[in-house]
Amino acid sequence: MQKPKSGDTVRVHYTGTLDDGTEFDTSRGREPLEFAMGKGQLIAGFENAVADLGVGESCKVTLPPEEAYGEVNQSMVQDVPRELMPEGVELREGMVLQGQSQEGRVDNFTVVSFTEETVKLDANHPLAGKSLTFDIELIAIV
């Protein structure tokens, strides 16, 4: 059975869950996810699982944080002055704000907590530090 190799474009259906069974993403009910193997478009552990499948085959794989979105990097959690927040935005813990990083990238920042003077923002990926389980089905190699 043919398996995908670097450079192949593949289509997969997947469902991602956390350790407690919470579903964080799925392609079921919509078009399959299409991506090119070996281009770094997806987390490495997901792509490695797809590389072991033939068309029509499925697998279930659990990825530790280092094979998914990495461990939580505490240097990416910082207190910033409240006055730097956009005017008119009512802050809530867990809300995601978009802003420019010190390197000039546009990044997402999750509000961890806030006071009248400061806002604690986390620039880590929301799934950083978590083990992720994926049910993956290789639909096609195109």
Can you walk through the features of this model?
By secondary structure, this protein is mostly beta strands. It has two domains: 75 residues, Chitinase A, domain 3 (Roll); 49 residues, Thrombin, subunit H (Beta Barrel), CATH 2.40.10. The strands form two sheets. Strands 1, 2, 3, 4 and 9 form a five-stranded antiparallel β-sheet that branches. A four-stranded antiparallel β-sheet has the order 5-8-7-6, with no helix packed on it. The two termini are 15 Å apart. 13% of the residues are buried. The mean pLDDT is 95.
What secondary-structure arrangement, pairings included, does this model have?
Elements lengths: L8 E9 L5 E4 L6 E4 L7 H8 L6 E6 L13 E5 L14 E5 L5 E9 L3 E5 L9 E10 L1
Antiparallel strand pairs: 1-2, 1-3, 1-9, 4-9, 5-8, 6-7, 7-8
What is the CATH topology assignment of the largest domain? Chitinase A, domain 3
Range of helix content: under 10%
CA-based shape: elongated
Euclidean distance between termini CA atoms: 15 Å
Radius of gyration of CA atoms, rounded to a whole number: 19 Å
Beta content comes to 35-45%
CATH architectural grouping of the largest domain: Roll
**Backbone structural class:** mainly beta
Number of domains: 2
Query: How many helical stretches?
Result: 1
For the sheet with most strands, the description reads: 5 strands, antiparallel
Name the CATH class of the largest domain.
Answer: Alpha Beta
String of helices and strands:
EEEHEEEEEE
- Would you count the extended β strands for me? 9
**Low-confidence spans:** none
State mean pLDDT (0 to 100 scale).
Answer: 95
